[in-house]
Amino acid sequence: MSEESPVDPFLEIHPNIRKRFPQIEHDRDGNRRTYLNSGAGTLMVDSAIQGLAEAAQSANPQPGHIDPSEVATEELHWRVRQSVTDFIHGNRPEEISFHQSTTHALFNLAYSLRGMLTNLNNLVVTDLDHMANISPWEDVWGFGFGCEIRRAKVDEEGRLDVDHLLSLIDQTTGVVAVTMASNGFGSVVPLDEVIPLIRTKSYTALICVDAVHHALHGSIDVQKMDCDFLAFSGYKIFGPMLGVFWGKGSLLHRLQPYRVETNKSEAPHKFEQGTLNNATLASLEGALAYLLWLSDELARRVGRKIQSARNKFEFAMDRIADYEGKLSRSVLECFQRFDADRFRCFGINDPERIGERDPTFSFEISGKDPGEIKRYLWEVHGLQIADGNHYSAAIYRHLNRESLCRASFAHYDTLEAVKRFVEAVEDFLI
Ligand SMILES: Cc1ncc(COP(=O)(O)O)c(C=O)c1O
Question: Is 349 helix (H, G, I), strand (E, B) or coil?
Fold first, then answer.
């Protein structure tokens, strides 16, 4: 390694990263493919797959305190809660509950705020969010309890219009529901800056953050961000299908989720309806263990020793963000050669501003059906992208579109995959 051109440690271990994702080269039928649909769900990492299988074989259905298998299951639950706490820089494992999905967790949360809000409150949602962080507020509090629901706009560049959001907030705002990043346009909301501004408009509004789209792309620190609630999904961080919910410890005792009378009345148990899914928890532990492995591998190569799990998560996610920035830059630079009258990529298009976006690219080709484009890219080029509205309010409400193509990258993708993707779109355009 010469001093002038040190090898990027991320690139150095990239083949090892890819080896840990069994489906990375082929789909279930052995078809060669390039998976560019991580926004809809990431590939599962080997340790998350093993977690599923091992728990199915050895976990006890119920946790407990007497026999070894129930004790092991109890320990598993608390280990995973602790690991998630470290991943998002929470305070205590009691703040973490597990749900069928993020959507489920947020409906649960909305319902559990009765007693804390009244119909005199307004709630603020955004046109950038996934519907999972809109419908619970509109359904439960708007239609259900008659609250006014206010909708913050998206600006011309596909970013949240922060000034408009702030103009909607006042001292009667009960909830501000906002995403970390758009699953439609990839735009990141700088919540470290926006949340203090929200607090100046209302010091009592509860801030609920949807971290699903951003969780695979960068680090999360709920304390630094100073949100009240946050949710993300296991299957968007290389793991299993489940939703994870975090709430500020000082608030959780005030929430009243729907709960069977015999369930424990304290957090986290009171938020969890029914028996937990041990296999998905063990799998989530495996997915998070992968990120710790990644941190160790990268730190070793740059001669760093990182001690705590939370610092390791942060280090791994920051390196992922750096690497993905290179993928985004390459995508946006290549898009510049397309005829702007025929091809449009939504969201931030400037390669110099990759720090403001995740590597998620919704696009359209004039006069062409997104389903036809998706089919062509798959059948001719083995590229797997998505079409549809992706449940994204940015697409469905802001653009009023039924469907857009979306190519979404993750850190296991390569610059070669970017090239293949851009050439395939170019081929379609000819
Ligand atoms: C940004 C965002 N939020 C929320 C969700 C909903 O997650 P879940 O499928 O776990 O309910 C998704 C799923 O695509 C998403 O992309």
Answer: coil
CA dihedral of residues 130, 133, 139, 140 (deg, nearest 10): 170
The model's pLDDT over 379-416, given as tens digits with 9 standing for 90+, comes to 999 999 999 999 999 999 999 999 999 999 999 999 99
Q: Which of 160, 236, 244, 392 to mutate to test the pocket of ligand 1 (most atoms within 8 A of CB)?
A: 236
> Binning pLDDT at 50, 70 and 90, where does residue 73 land?
very high
* CA 219–ligand 1 middle distance (angstroms): 18
Where are the CATH 3.90.1150.10 domain residues in the chain? 9-47+303-429
Q: How far is the CA of 102 from the centre of ligand 1 (A)?
A: 6
Residue ranges around ligand 1 (CB below 6 Å):
101-103, 130, 132, 179, 183, 210, 212-213, 233, 243, 391
pTM: 0.97
272-281 pLDDT per residue, tens = 999 999 999 9
Strands (E), 28-187: 34-35, 96-99, 122-126, 148-152, 173-179
Q: Dig out the tokens for 305 from the structure.
A: 């020793």
The boundaries of every CATH 3.40.640.10 domain in the chain are 94-280
- CATH number for the domain whose boundaries are 9-47+303-429: 3.90.1150.10
Helix axes 309-335, 278-301, angle to 10 degrees: 80
Q: Measure 337 CA to ligand 1 centroid, in angstroms.
A: 33
CATH class of 94-280: alpha beta
Ligand 1 probe mutation, 100, 217, 391, most atoms within 8 A of CB: 391
